[in-house]
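[job 0417] fold request received: DNA-directed RNA polymerase subunit sigma
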Amino acid sequence: MKGGEKLDDVLIKKIKNGNDHAFRILVEKYRNLIFHTVYGVLRNEKDAEDATQEVFLKIYTSLPQYENQGFKTWMTRIAINHAIDIKRKKVRRKEDQQVEYEESSHTPPTENVELLVIQKERRHLLRERLKELPVNYRDIVEEFYLREKTYQEIAEDADLKVKTVEVKLYRARQWMKKHWKEDDFS
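[job 0417] inference complete; emitting structure tokens
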């Protein structure tokens, strides 16, 4: 065990026993790491500062469940997941505002160019990485994401039940989330 990890274990034990000073030491030690981690996802300094504070709050409230499984990795995973959640909410808000704007104007709705570019990039990335998927998921993922077929169309083409298609797509998404560590495919 490395010296830094031993110190972390001592601090975590003290924090679990109610020592707030130990938590302040932990925050000071890892503030830059957490900031740079969330900044890498959010690409906005103000958002990253806010997210860093929120991450430490999550770490504090989650510490009772932490059981020596590699603190730095555990903490970084919390930071990344939180930053991804923030980013998704921002994208959704932008999309909602775009819809509201389009509905309020009496001109025909225009395509959101940024959204189209993102979708095109996702499809390109997926096409490139399709070979990495387990064989039993490839066809269904390709049909759904790249050829944009419905569950019903996929089921008919492959002589499967719609429920089977749903389950396979669900499992494929789970595999992608686990192995690719990206929010692009969720």
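[job 0417] notes: The longest helix spans residues 71-104. Confidence is low (pLDDT under 50) at residues 106-111.
[job 0417] exit 0
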